[in-house]
Design goal:
Blueprint: H1 2-9, H2 12-23, H3 25-39, H4 48-53, H5 63-86
Length: 87
Amino acid sequence: MKKYLQLIWYSFPVQLIFLHFRKYQLLLLFWFLLGSAVSGGFMHHFGADSLFLSPEYLGSVNFFSAFFVGMAFGGFMMSWNITTFIL
């Protein structure tokens, strides 16, 4: 069991998260804002949580609305990975 915990601890994604906490705290602010907007803690009065949890496109919630939100999240994720790779 100890061997598996060490393998998880020294895995690349876990070490990358700790690197961000150690060096790039300002970049983690974007993830905090995104997470708090989805959970309803940030911009709740403007309906930001509804934009993520039940997105509308042309007046209805359908595949295309979820597709566009997924593409936007994918773009955010790719820009995050490219930025941290450059740093």
